[in-house]
Amino acid sequence: MTEATNYNQFLKDLYSLQDLEIIEHPSEKKRFSRDFFNYSPVLFEKLHQCCADVVLRPKSIKAISLIAEACYKYEIPLTLRGSGTGNYGQCVPIEGGAVMLMDSFKKIREFDPLTGQVTVEPGCLLGNLDSYLANEGRQLRLIPSTWRNASVGGFISGGSGGIGSVRWGFLRDPGHLKELEILTVEEKPRLLKLDEISSEPINHAYGTNGIITALTLATAPFEEWHEITIDCDDFSQAIALIKSCSSAAINIYLCSLLERRIIENIPNWSGDITGKHRILILVSADGINTLRKITSNYNVIFNNLGKEKSSNGLRELTWNHTTLHMRAKDSNWTYLQMLLPQPELDAIDFINNKWGDNILWHLESVRQQGEQRIAALPLVRWKDKEALDNLISDFKKIGAFIFNPHVITVEDGGLGTVDIEQVKAKRNFDPKGLLNPRKLKGWI
Length: 444
Ligand SMILES: Cc1cc2nc3c(=O)[nH]c(=O)nc-3n(C[C@H](O)[C@H](O)[C@H](O)COP(=O)(O)OP(=O)(O)OC[C@H]3O[C@@H](n4cnc5c(N)ncnc54)[C@H](O)[C@@H]3O)c2cc1C
Hints:
The chain has helices at 3-15, 26-31, 41-47, 61-74, 126-135, 152-158, 165-168, 196-199, 235-247, 260-263, 288-295, 320-329, 344-355, 385-397, 410-413, 420-429; strands at 20-23, 54-58, 78-81, 98-101, 108-111, 118-120, 138-140, 177-183, 191-194, 211-217, 219-221, 226-232, 252-258, 277-283, 300-307, 333-335, 338-339, 359-360, 362-368, 371-376, 379-381, 401-402. By secondary structure, it is an alpha+beta fold. The strands form 5 sheets. It has an 8-stranded antiparallel β-sheet. A 5-stranded antiparallel β-sheet has the order 5-6-10-8-9. Strands 1-2-4-3 form a 4-stranded mixed β-sheet, covered by helices on one side. Helix 1 (3-15) packs antiparallel against helix 4. Bound molecules: flavin-adenine dinucleotide.
């Protein structure tokens, strides 16, 4: 059978299925084949022409299973899509085939008041899940700054951390993901329940080794967050302050530092421009006075903006939203992501001396393997790939751990090494390698 006959037969089989919307309009296929990879000129070049042959929106688990079965039979690549807000082209179908939209699966199946754990379908938006949890006196531990629109399945499969990382570390840290329900892509797809340990290889695997149909997550007690900004003339002082604030015995959900040139160019939700660097904090009410005390020996402007509102606020100025706002002003900005070496200031000085105005500093306080550390998502003025590679090489030389957002594989964007468990899971759950082809380097 030729490839074309295969595909036609595949489509014919799909049209006989129930609970399935089939989308073949070219502009819709294009729309559902993209995410926010355009933040990287390197990825844009690689991915902007990739397009699905067909887009599928199943409405029942049975329909997902029959799609998986048909993909296996006709050897059609299958790429899953939550809300399509990833930055690494995670849901771009590099080899075409089918893109499967998971947005019909948004039920919150179960909440356990004793443990606070919640079991939810992957298409549920994080914002909706968080509102549900608030009624139960709980909240999500970690959310991306795209929390209003991103799906929980997409966050677990494609995200890493974000708001909450200052306390709770990163998504792949043990303890966040408790269980998964997945469907395999085999001759007869299996619906499997995975416990905490066996869920690990599916966590942050870009949907390459199983179709998540439900996930169980740990949550935190609900807290009403207060927005605080601290403006500071001196960048080294600002770094010292974010360290003291994030390691104090207070309940804190966000602690970001944006250098003055960024503050001057992003929306004014954090207050007027003072010409200083700005620290943005979300903290519980009983932590505010502690923050005042910590800052009292410094020459700063302390601003209590009050309780967080439901409209745009500090959280939508941080993490990759900083990049979003800067790119809205000038799309020539791109970015990097890394854990800074210590002492951070030496590293920053070294880069400033060499790269000057081509770098703008955006720091996030995070917990990394139990330690308070500083992550950086610096804005980088785009010149060309060679300059970017030189910059990355300079960062590596000084000991920064880069999570490169200009690459397409799970490994290159993450720890840099192959996780054999992820590859084993792919062999078990997707033996023909049809799920999101070319994204798992270990498989290639
Ligand atoms: C402005 C901006 C800010 C951002 N801030 C952050 C941040 O703070 N932290 C962060 O981690 N990320 C951030 N991101 C990236 C992204 O928004 C998040 O990771 C988000 O959670 C992805 O969710 P999604 O529903 O859009 O997933 P998608 O982009 O649709 O998918 C992500 C990956 O998950 C896979 N997938 C989707 N559903 C399933 C499923 N059911 N089973 C298996 N695999 C599946 C997809 O195939 C894909 O590989 C940001 C992006 C932008 C544009």
